[in-house]
Amino acid sequence: MVERKSIAGKASYRESKSEDRASIRGLQAAVYTNAVAGVSEALISGPADTLSLVAELDGEIVGHILLTPVNGPERALALAPHAILAAWRDMQIGTELVRHAIRLARERGWRCVFVFGQPDYYCRFGFKSHTADGAQIAWQGPRFLALELEADALRGWSGPLEYPEAYKAMASAIHK
Ligand SMILES: CC(C)(COP(=O)(O)OP(=O)(O)OC[C@H]1O[C@@H](n2cnc3c(N)ncnc32)[C@H](O)[C@@H]1OP(=O)(O)O)[C@@H](O)C(=O)NCCC(=O)NCCS
User: Fold this and answer.
1) 3 exposed, middle or buried (CB, 10 Å; 0-12, 13-18, 19+)?
2) Short-list 93, 131, 104, CA closest to 115
3) What is the 112 CA–ligand 1 centroid distance (Å)?
4) Mutate to test the pocket of ligand 1, among 33, 57, 89 (most ligand atoms within 8 A of CB)
5) This model's pTM is above 0.85
6) Which protein residues are within 6 Å of ligand 1, measured from CB?
C-alpha cells in the first residue's frame, strides 16, 4: 500500500494544454462514455476561466478534472467530470488532483465549488451536503455537495443554480 500511495507523489498535476485534448477525450471515454468525452471537451473549450487539470505519470495522462463556472452564487464552480484511468485508481492520484484543483481555484478568486458525488469521498476535501442546501437544482439531494473556498461564501445564499447547457447532456451518465 505504501508503494501504491507513493505513485501519487510521482505524478505531476497541471492545467491541461490544447495538445492534451486527444488524451483527455480518450480517458473520459474509457472511464465514462464517448458522449461524456464529447461534452467535457466542449466544456474545456468554454469560458476562458474554466479550470481543466490533468495528472500525468511518465508522460501518460492518467487523470483529469474539470471545474466549470456556474450561475448562482458569486464566483461559483461545478466540479465534473473527475476521472482516473482504472489502472491508476486507489493510489491517491484522484485526491491529489482535487487538491491541486481546489488550490488553483482559490488562487484565481473562486469562492465556492459544487459537486454531485460520493459524500464519503469528497468530504475529505471539506465538501458538505448542507453547504449546498440553498441550491435549487434538479440533482439536489444528499449527494449534492459544496465547498466554500472563502469563509461563509454560501452562508445564507439560496437560489437557482445553473450549470452550462452542455453539462446537462452528460449529467445522467456521470451522476451514478
Ligand atoms: C472517484 C475517482 C476519481 C477517485 O480517484 P482515485 O485516484 O481512485 O481515488 P484516490 O486514490 O484519491 O482515493 C482513494 C480513496 O477513495 C475511496 N473511493 C474511491 N472511489 C470512491 C467512491 N466512488 N466512493 C467513495 N469512496 C471512494 C477509496 O476507498 C479510497 O479510500 P482511502 O483513501 O480511505 O483508502 C476514481 O475512482 C474514478 O475515476 N472513478 C470513476 C469515475 C467517478 O466515479 N468519478 C467521480 C464522480 S464525479
Assistant:
1) exposed
2) 131
3) 21
4) 89
5) yes
6) 31, 80-84, 89-95, 117-118, 120-121, 174
Nine-digit cell string for 146? 459544496
Which domains are present in the chain?
2-174 (3.40.630.30)
What is the residue-wise DSSP string for 76-130?
Answer: EEEEEEEEE-GGGTTSSHHHHHHHHHHHHHHHTT--EEEEES-HHHHGGGT-BTG
Atom 34 of ligand 1, nearest CA residue: 121
Cross-strand bridge partners of residue 145: 115
Give pLDDT tens digits for 81-114: 999 999 999 999 999 999 999 999 999 999 999 9
